[in-house]
Design brief:
It is a single chain. This protein is about 90% helix and about 0% strand. The chain contains 3 helices and no strands. Helix 1 packs antiparallel against helix 2, helix 1 packs parallel to helix 3 and helix 2 runs antiparallel to helix 3. The mean pLDDT is about 85.
Length: about 170
């Protein structure tokens, strides 16, 4: 058998090649693993955020529906003065529903919803005060008419008394 002159160098070069090849293959496998593994985690997080966002939007839609009904009740308080007590009860119920919906969420809408509930409560109170004041104004105008009528009768009776005094010679 022939003896190869540079077998030691060849073996060292082959071992270096195997070592670098193995390191390169491992790096490529790790890169491919992370390339496919990280998007899966990211997709999971994004799906969770999307679910939370969808839930918040549904809560906000419920809030807006209840707010629209409350505004409708506020408007009907202005128009229908006869059933104001029943409308007030319906309005209180809707505002309570809004308050519970407002307290449920921790969304960016929460502050805005809180302000809306406060404003609706203020509007309800102002409408009730306006209704009471308008009743008082109606009562006051009725009393003013009665006073004018009574004063007119008093003046008429005064004139009759004066005529009777002149006729009797007083």
């Amino acid at each position: 058998m022939q003896k190869i002159l540079n077998s030691k160098e060849r073996n060292q070069a082959f071992i270096k090649f195997l070592l670098f090849f193995t390191v390169t293959v491992v790096l490529i496998v790790i890169a491919v693993y992370f390339n496919f593994r990280l998007p899966v985690k990211e997709n999971k997080k994004l799906k969770e955020r999307m679910t939370l966002q969808t839930q918040e939007e549904m809560k906000q839609e419920k809030f807006v529906e209840n707010m629209d009904k409350a505004v409708m009740y506020l408007d009907s308080m202005d128009k229908d003065k006869k059933n104001i007590e029943s409308i007030e009860m319906l309005l209180k119920g809707k505002i309570n529903d809004l308050a519970t919906l407002e307290k449920e969420g921790f969304s960016p809408y929460a502050r805005m919803n809180k302000l809306i509930v406060q404003r609706l409560l203020q509007l309800k109170d102002q409408n009730i005060q306006l209704y009471k004041l308008s009743d008082k104004a109606n009562t006051l105008s009725d009393m003013e008419r009665k006073l004018q009528y009574t004063e007119a009768q008093l003046n008429q009776k005064q004139q009759e008394i004066d005529q009777l005094r002149k006729g009797a010679g007083f």
